[in-house]
Design goal:
This protein is mainly α and 227 residues long. It contains eight helices and three strands. It has a three-stranded antiparallel β-sheet with strand order 1-3-2. It is globular and about 65 Å long. The protein starts with a helix and ends in a 43-residue tail after the last helix. It holds the Pfam family PadR.
């Protein structure tokens, strides 16, 4: 499995842990709530869903809304398939949530992991945040060394671009420091005291803000294609 497909499977399982959805709903949530997936198509999503069904982590059910019931006779299309997380799928997702290896610190995977911090235990959140900070501090040091070596050979625009990149990493490190301090103090993101997430709660807000300062999600293009 590629790293990209692994991140997608993780995000799909996490969203379906909140509630069952059909393919269009899933794609919209991935596009608008998890910005890392803005540039992907149904051709990427549906093979992922089929794999998860084959693994026993999802089941397919016919849509049960009035709109779905009328879809076939009125439009000639079959009703949309709803995907539901199985008990095995929930257990697998919880195992993925508990992992804190190096992949959790990488750019795309960290964004997906952070989106589901509301379903993640505090000790795991801390390890992921501290790992991400360490990774970025290493990256920042390498960028500073590289800039010091090449500064005299760079034109003004290339130099400014490298400075911009360093400033972006520095901002995220400061952001991570604030999050880590809040976690250590037992506070949630709005500054109030918070307890551990309830692993039984499937409605916790799992698709909150991601580390994409200033990046507004692009609107999703309506597509009523049945699954």
């Amino acid at each position: 499995m590629s790293r990209r497909s692994g991140i997608l499977e993780f995000a799909v399982l996490g969203l379906l842990r909140e509630s069952p959805m059909h393919g269009y709903e899933l794609r919209k949530r991935l596009n608008t709530s998890l910005g890392v997936f803005r540039a992907f198509s149904y051709g990427t999503l549906y093979p992922c869903l089929k794999t998860l069904v084959a693994n026993g982590w999802l089941i397919e059910e016919p849509g049960n809304t009035t709109e779905d019931a009328l879809a076939a006779p009125l439009t000639g299309r079959r009703a949309k398939i709803v995907y539901r997380l199985t008990a095995e799928g929930k257990e697998h997702f919880e195992q993925l949530l508990s992992q804190t290896g190096p992949d959790a610190y990488e750019d795309e995977h960290f964004a997906a992991r952070f989106a589901f911090f509301g379903q993640t235990s505090r000790d795991v959140r801390m390890r992921v945040l501290e790992g991400r900070r360490s990774r970025l501090e290493e990256r920042l040091e390498k960028m500073r060394v590289s800039l010091a070596r090449t500064r005299e050979r760079l034109d003004d625009y290339t130099l400014e671009l490298q400075r911009h990149g360093m400033e972006s990493v520095e901002r995220e490190v400061r952001w991570l420091n604030e999050l880590i301090e809040s976690e250590r103090a037992g506070r949630d993101l709005n500054g109030s005291s918070s307890g551990e997430p309830d692993s039984r709660d499937t409605t916790s807000g799992a698709s909150g803000g991601l580390p994409r300062p200033g990046g507004d999600p692009r609107p999703d293009t309506p597509d009523d294609t049945a699954t």
